[in-house]
Specification:
The structure is a homodimer of 399-residue chains.
Chain A (H helix, E strand, L loop, with lengths): L3 E4 L11 E6 L13 E16 L7 H12 L3 E10 L7 H17 L6 E8 L6 H7 L10 H7 L8 E9 L2 E10 L12 E6 L5 H13 L5 E2 L9 E6 L8 H21 L7 E9 L2 H13 L1 H8 L5 H10 L10 E4 L2 E5 L2 E2 L4 H8 L3 E7 L5 E8 L3 H7 L5
Parallel strand pairs in A: 4-5, 8-10, 9-16, 11-15
Antiparallel strand pairs in A: 1-6, 2-3, 3-4, 3-10, 6-7, 7-8, 11-16, 12-13, 12-15, 13-14
Helix pairs in contact in A: 1-2, 5-6, 7-9
Chain lengths: 399, 399
């Protein structure tokens, strides 16, 4: 099995066969009136779909609606998504507006309204400006290359669009998986921590698609953290229109995971105020689950993140984060690396070349590795440093 | 039962009968050479003692040693504590040095070395400078008023000492509880999250003392958060020398809790870089445990903390934090208040006077209240805002 998985130049969510997208500036976010903020993703062939959603108990209306439709409908035809307003915590009006937005889009593109999913991101507690959406939805032009527009439309405090596509060749089989995501704030592990839309022209079964997505998300979007907060709106959706025919299960899973990890790293590295990406690999844990727990604790630690911002080789904070993570760990077996430089061996500090470590900490990507030397569990998590800019952004988000 | 519980002016850990303390500048922290950093707390009568410790799996040497001694020894006579060096993650040398520090102190004051507990706080991964400690320990002068010195000696990035004492009168019974604490960074709920030393001249049984401490800590030190991180060194210790005779159990519990809450609020309000204290009360939860979970999620949220720093009335973040906390909550029953001003009723935003809310958010203490309207569980948690200063402090801690 030597499938060839290749990232496409300019790849995006509309790279797979049969997918179209478009966006417009509806003025939903009054402070960014020029930015596209309303977008549609459409497949010319109805799609099997699977998704993971935020696990919060107070979910936004679009999440509730999309969850229900995914459960009730056989296939879906489109997704409408807006930024600038989360349509969360506005009472029953939220569900009415979410359904209304889907209906407007469905009517325009000839898809049954109930086969349109909805996603929103932005300020919580403000009703959707339905008049603006009604006035703008017809301006959206669907295009085979429209994924780039969609990627821009879902951005909030993101500094750059996040999109990619992989083309897979395996013998005679050839298919594509594309995706866009937005992140930036309210990003935390163990949840569908973002808006992510993934498409494929592969033909797969629905149960398999759900399983493959869950597996890919566990290794990607669930392994990133920006600030430990979780949004009521988070969802990661995958749509499969089958136009490329059947594909080998293992190859599909592997390609989907690679794409999701690529997008997840883009989110982590573009966290609010971030100046560098942190990659933490834990090996030698009792099992994969514990490795994940430990790795996420490190990239979630405010103290580790602040130290990375200052290029401060305060490795004790990394060790402390692993220690409190809940994962099994024994001090006398603990090894720690900053980049390739070992700083702790069997629980004890090693003398290290401080200027060399500081130089590593000043790179765009900072790599930490801990070996717990207890088992074969391994996992990698991604995060970003904590800068004063994070505070500035989030102290003035609403006002 | 109308016991009179009164906070003493200038109250401190040596306010109860028979307690002495003193401190000196041993130069353990080279960057703050003038600051006292080595202190002893001593009781002229041997003490029953109880403690709660950090729950991390990688505990610092002084925690391991003190835990063991509390278990093995009947009574203790003194505590030695240093700031500037955590004596954590330095291998077996840590235990040797912790025991060595206790022995030096025990010898000087005539207490069996094994009856001396040890606590440390400061940078992780550096061995204790035993030569400096050896050269300085004899300079410590124990004094009935020495609690103030001890309060200063345990400070690291704290901006002010944290100390208090309550005098309790209940009929013919009269006793005092005193305490000092340090906090500032690595402060997070559900753990013994700080160094806290509490003393009393009340005569109480050891099991009761442990139970009363746990109960008080659950309502105080476990309800504060500064940054979500947990130190390997955290401990809260209570010592009872019995000089004031027997006391009513309920009155003792109540006074201990009040003292701990007072100290906990001082820690939360003096979190690294903090400009204001956040108090979050959750009522109407299914039970007390769920109320605590929800309240702590709010004061731990980086986004809520950043919004408070900017006096940004972004109440959706408070609601989102409650929603993801894991506590049972129903959107249609959720009420939210900023100070006395209701901003959400039955899950829906109410129009509110924004300048009035912003004014409340600019106060030294910001109060949030959520009523889940599901049961009678109630709890209060305390935290602080997140300022750019937090990042500055923590990006340059070690270097």
């Amino acid at each position: 099995m030597t499938a060839d998985i290749e990232f496409l130049p300019q790849g995006t969510v509309t790279s797979p066969e049969g997918f179209f997208a478009g966006a417009t500036s509806a003025g939903i976010n009054e402070r960014a009136a020029d930015k596209p903020d309303l977008a549609v993703l459409f497949s010319e062939a109805p799609c099997l779909a699977a998704a993971v959603f935020t696990v919060t108990k107070l979910k936004a209306a679009p999440v509730l609606l999309s969850q229900q439709r995914l459960k009730e409908r056989g296939k879906i035809g489109a997704v409408v998504v807006n930024s600038g307003c989360a349509n969360a915590y506005v009472g029953e009006q939220g569900l009415i507006d979410a359904a209304g937005m889907a209906a407007l889009v469905g009517k325009g593109i000839g898809v049954v309204p109930e086969d349109v999913l909805v996603a929103s991101t932005g300020v919580i507690g403000t009703p959707l400006p339905m008049d603006k959406i009604r006035a703008s939805v017809d301006k959206i032009v669907l295009d085979r290359d429209g994924g780039h527009q969609l990627a821009k439309a879902i951005m909030t405090t993101d500094t750059q669009p996040k999109e990619a596509a992989v083309r897979v060749k395996d013998g005679n089989v050839e298919f594509t998986i594309g995706g866009v995501a937005k992140g930036s704030g309210m990003i935390h592990p163990d949840l569908a921590t973002l808006l992510g839309f993934i498409t494929t022209d592969a033909a797969v079964e629905k149960d398999f698609l759900q399983k493959a997505l869950k597996k890919a998300v566990d290794a990607s979007f669930n392994m990133i953290s920006v600030d430990g907060d979780t949004s009521p709106n988070d969802m990661a959706l995958v749509m499969a229109n089958g136009l490329a025919g059947n594909v080998p299960a293992g190859v599909f899973e592997s390609a989907l995971e690679q794409l999701c990890i690529y997008l997840a790293k883009l989110i982590a590295g573009d966290g609010e105020g971030a100046t560098r990406l942190i990659e933490m690999t834990v090996s030698g844990a009792i099992n994969t689950l514990e490795a994940r727990t430990a790795a996420r604790a490190v990239v979630s630690s405010a103290l580790v993140k602040a130290a990375v911002y200052g290029a401060d080789p305060n490795w004790g904070r990394i060790m402390a984060a692993v220690g409190r993570s809940g994962a099994e760990v024994e001090e006398s077996k603990f090894d720690l690396y900053i980049g390739e430089i070992q700083v702790v061996k069997a629980g004890k500090a090693l003398p290290f070349n401080e200027p060399a470590v500081v130089k590593l900490l000043k790179g765009d990507e900072v790599h930490f590795g801990a070996n717990l030397n207890l088992g074969s569990g391994q996992a990698t998590a991604w995060g970003c440093d904590l800068s004063p800019e994070y505070v500035t952004i989030n102290s003035q988000y609403m006002t």
